[in-house]
Design goal:
93 residues, OB fold (Dihydrolipoamide Acetyltransferase, E2P), elongated, 5-stranded mixed beta barrel, mainly beta
């Protein structure tokens, strides 16, 4: 196993802690502490208790991890109920 290789697990967020960390229960029953990864923070993806996530972990410390992906809930999709306002310059319709 190379040093750069990371382990990926799926799990559920059980608690959002005040310092930006999350308590996650993995599918195999283990409970870990994780933080939101760089792209999750950059794009301001919110993670709440009950969300399904994918976590990267190092082989050296199996108690901490980084959330890399938040799975969409079943049946969630883009909302089509609101109509977007589109700017059109004068004279064009």
């Amino acid at each position: 196993m190379a040093k750069e290789e990371l382990l990926e697990f799926d799990g559920d967020v059980t608690e959002a802690l005040p310092d930006g960390n999350y308590r996650i229960t993995l599918d195999n029953g283990h409970e870990i502490l994780a933080y939101a990864g760089g792209k999750m923070r950059k794009h301001r993806i919110k993670t709440l208790a009950g969300d399904r996530v994918t976590v990267e972990m190092s082989a050296y410390d199996l108690t901490k991890g980084r959330i890399t992906f938040r799975h969409k809930p079943e049946g969630a999709g883009p909302s089509t109920s609101r109509k977007r306002n589109v700017y059109r310059p004068h004279g064009r319709r």
